[in-house]
Specification:
- The complex is a heterodimer of chains A (about 180) and B (about 675).
- Chain A is an alpha/beta fold and about 180 residues long.
- Helices cover about 35% and strands about 25% of the residues of chain A.
- Chain A is built from five helices and eight strands.
- Chain A starts with a helix and ends with a strand.
- The chains are: A alpha/beta (about 180), B mainly beta (about 675).
- At the A-B interface, helix 1, helix 2, strand 6, strand 7 and helix 5 of A face helix 1, helix 2 and helix 3 of B.
Chain lengths: ~180, ~675
């Protein structure tokens, strides 16, 4: 066989091998955050009756947004999870959980969360919220690991019952 | 035809070399949704540290003993917890002393492993080896124990010849609220630990702890009772604050321990004393670490500790003050190079009064240790092939500068497999008691013409040197089954050795033993760890290790040593757990340890065979009050009434056995 054909063959073989290389099985921090959200949804029993799906509404911009649709492949409380990206003035009556990202207007965020509380919606966020604005589960990073705070006050007001183990895992439980 | 071939080569080259080098795909791992919150909270996230620091992905034989592993094992001390890792030889000499080593050379003074607590070394400069009984940290405070087997001096510094044990305590962020733990048992007597943590704000936490252990002496069948009791007290605090671009850690503590002793101490005049007063140790330390990310993405770390320690160990009384400072920078260069470099400086002053049994050359001594280190993780092929080049240059008082390089390669061809290899050079710098002391090693006898054997230093001791070749393979067979295998070939040179000098050279009041670096050794071994978690309620971990060491003398007349046979050739252990009900879990730890030969001083230097043994520990754990209270019943060494694991090869003490025992533990979280 001529040398250049051998080289071609070798390179093509290498290309075939290398192209089957997968990215390392590493967990990106936003993947882990998405998994946190899934765990909160899975662990906390809904208060209001569920429809055909468990609806997770997403409002505002967040670093984990692109991973949240993966949650649509998961189940919670016997139902498939459906993720819905909504505008701030959308109809949130359909939501069973609300993930709050960065929104421009603090007042809008506040109104949104008050509405969610009245409608027994589980609220989760990973963005720094201004004073007076709070969610039931707040995901944050401490020393290179993800942690979460729980607002027991908001949970009770929204009529959610939180597991003792969940509270023990929380960094801060606001009562 | 030629043009087509030329294009084919070009296309093949581009797709083979260029695309893989430039592409970076990040597939979402669906398995992440199967992880419970507890597991997710353990994951190190990449955005803070710039690179993931999962020990599974470093090119070294690494094993992590988690807090859950420790809890399930029923271990009541760090030495017992270390049994859970493959490749570590853990042998109890008595209720308060251990011989712990990695990859051979097991001894009460196992000098070839570096032990750290939150990065602070607990390897004392005066004594070759870690005194575990003086570093009694409550297990409830431990987040994990990282065990790196093999030469690690390029990263960790001198004495990391056969391995590094890094004990990481829980961040204050992870201990919010209170926890009280109490143990009472047949051998444990009473151990109590209280921790309380506060979240001062969203990013700041503070915890304190108070701990007390009271372990009684063991009741020996033949000897009656042994003077091997162990009392220790430990007070400490930790402050963690997340800064806007970094973090701050301040922690400190006070440790006080008293251990029963029964030592036959040999005097310089040839007489013998039996020392039975408790050995005492006190340690107060303060540690600080500050991390900061600058705007150009460089991580700066400044850390340091200061320590005051005093040790009264039968024949030696030592007082020490230490100051340690280190600056480190971590940066990324051309997105292919992850570089860490730094400088470190340690200053210590210790004083050891002359006694009738041991005399150091100078009672008071001030020593300095300066280090410069650098390491580059070079991504030859991103997420596929990483070459690590590292080196450390160290200079210590009375020891010539040592250069400790290493080269490592990590190849990850797919999601399931990773292969690694490493070539390293490490050194062990002599401890002060080795390099400048007179000590009686054997009493006067007819065999020694009525003269005591006194150990002298013939020439300045050099650092022991190690060249090591390690390689390993990790594979995830499925989401619930994985294996981790490692093998090693190590050459040791300039090992410490002793010989009897001619009596005419010295005054005829003693028979001198001279020490020098006249021994070599060679060891090979293999370690395997397999984990299988077929169900959330069931899990198994199987560890196996084999190693063998041969020694060679570089000159004739050296006193033979059993150090090469003091570690077992084969060790097997099986950890298993089964959740019987949501509240009740049964866990077990079964281990087999091969026989060993130890030259114990109690037998006047004769070699003793410690027979192989198989032992079983079982733990029944009951969770009540929604997890706020846990009650445990633990049985240890259940298969035999008693068994021997080691004999003291440093000082002459009675040979003691480990007994079957039981204890109850109560954990209350509030």
């Amino acid at each position: 066989m001529r040398p250049h054909k051998k080289i071609t063959g070798l390179l093509l073989t290498l290309q075939l091998m290398v192209s089957t290389v997968f990215a390392l099985d590493k967990l990106h921090d936003n993947e882990i955050k998405a998994a946190f959200v899934y765990n909160f949804i899975k662990i906390v029993k809904p208060v209001k009756p569920l429809g055909d799906y468990y609806h997770l509404c997403i409002v505002g911009e967040s670093s984990i947004q692109k991973f949240l649709p993966e949650l649509s492949k998961q189940n919670a409380h016997g139902l498939a999870i459906k993720t819905i990206e909504m505008e701030v003035n959308g109809d949130f009556s359909i939501c069973d959980s609300l993930f709050l990202g960065q929104v421009e207007n603090h007042k809008i965020a506040n109104n949104l969360l008050q509405h969610a509380e009245k409608n027994n919606v589980l609220t989760i966020s990973d963005v720094d919220l201004k004073e007076g604005t709070d969610v039931i589960f707040y995901i944050k990073q401490l020393q290179g690991k993800l942690r979460f705070d729980v607002s027991l006050i908001l949970a009770r007001q929204a009529q959610f019952q939180l597991d003792a183990n969940l509270l023990r895992l929380a960094h801060i439980v606001k009562e | 035809m030629r043009n087509i071939s030329a294009w084919a080569i070009a296309v093949a080259f581009i797709t083979t070399v260029v695309f893989p080098l430039s592409s970076f795909s990040q597939a979402l791992n669906d398995d992440v949704f199967k992880l419970p919150l507890e597991e997710l909270m353990k994951q190190q996230v990449s955005s803070v540290s710039k690179k993931l620091q999962d020990l599974d992905d470093i090119p070294a034989a690494a094993y992590v003993i988690t807090a859950k592993d420790i809890q399930r094992s029923g271990a009541t001390s760090i030495p017992e917890a270390l049994r859970l890792a493959p490749g570590i030889d853990v042998a109890a000499i008595s209720n308060n002393k251990w011989a712990i080593s990695i990859r051979g050379f097991s001894s009460r003074a196992a000098d070839k492993i570096l032990v750290l607590v939150d990065g602070r070394t607990v390897y004392p400069p005066i004594f070759p080896g870690t005194l575990w009984e003086n570093n009694d940290i409550p297990l409830e405070l431990i987040e994990r124990i990282e065990v790196l087997r093999g030469a690690g001096a390029a990263i960790w510094g001198n004495n990391a010849v056969n391995g590094v044990i890094n004990i990481i305590t829980k961040s204050a962020h992870d201990v919010i609220g209170g926890q009280l733990s109490v143990i009472g048992g047949s051998e444990e007597n009473v151990t109590a630990n209280g921790i309380y943590g506060w979240a001062l704000d969203e990013k700041t936490s503070f915890r304190v702890h108070a701990y007390s252990r009271d372990k009684s002496y063991s009741k020996q069948t033949l000897a009656g009772s042994a003077n091997d009791s162990w009392q220790s007290q430990n007070l400490g605090f930790r402050f963690d604050k997340e800064l806007e671009k970094g973090r701050l850690l301040v922690q400190g503590g006070f440790l006080n321990s008293q251990t029963g002793a029964d030592v036959m101490a040999l005097r310089f005049d040839g007489g013998v004393d039996r020392l039975m007063s408790d050995t005492k140790s006190k340690n107060a330390h303060l540690q600080l670490m500050w991390e900061h990310y600058s705007n150009n993405g460089i991580l700066h770390t400044l850390q340091g500790f200061t320590e005051f320690a005093s040790n009264d160990i039968a024949i030696l009384e030592d007082r020490r003050r230490t100051l340690d400072l280190e600056y480190q920078q971590q940066l990324t260069f051309t997105q292919r190079h992850d570089i860490v470099w730094g400088v470190a400086y340690r200053l210590w002053k210790d004083s050891a009064e002359h006694t009738d049994y041991l005399q150091l050359e100078d009672e008071d001594k001030t020593s300095h240790l300066a280090s410069l280190f650098i390491q580059d993780d070079f991504s030859l092929i991103p997420n596929n092939l990483v070459l690590t080049l590292g080196a450390r240059l160290e200079q210590r008082t009375d020891v010539k500068a040592e250069f400790q390089p290493n080269i490592r390669l990590l190849w990850t061809p797919d999601e399931q497999n990773s292969f690694w290899g490493a070539l390293s050079r490490s050194v062990r710098m002599p401890a002060r008691i080795e390099s400048a002391s007179r000590i009686v090693v054997a009493q006067a006898s007819p065999q020694t013409n009525g003269l005591p054997l006194i150990r002298e230093l013939s020439e300045p001791l050099l650092s022991e040197r190690v060249g090591a070749l390690d390689f390993g393979w990790r594979r995830k067979w499925s989401h619930d089954f994985s294996t981790d295998a490692a093998a090693f070939i190590v050459n040791y040179d300039y090992l410490r050795a002793s010989r009897v000098a001619e009596i005419s050279s010295f005054p005829p009041t003693s028979l001198p033993i001279l020490i020098s670096n006249d021994r070599q050794a060679h060891s090979v071994g293999f370690e395997l760890s397999s984990k299988w978690y077929p169900h959330d309620d069931v899990g198994f971990t199987l560890n196996y290790s084999w190693s063998t060491t041969k020694a060679k003398d570089k000159r004739s007349g050296l006193i033979s040593t059993a150090i090469v046979d003091s570690s077992p050739k084969h060790k097997v252990s099986l950890q298993a757990r089964y959740r019987l009900t949501p509240q009740v879990e049964l866990s077990g730890f079964l281990r087999y340890v091969d026989d060993i030969r130890v030259r114990g001083l109690a037998s006047n230097g004769g070699e003793q065979v410690i027979a192989s043994y198989t032992e079983l520990d079982l733990k029944l754990n009951y969770i009540i009050d929604r997890g706020n209270v846990e009650l445990s019943l633990v049985g240890k060494n259940l298969l035999h009434a008693s068994h021997a694991e080691f004999v003291d090869d440093i000082v002459s003490t009675p040979n003691l056995e480990q007994k079957r025992s039981v204890y109850v533990k109560l954990d209350w979280r509030f």
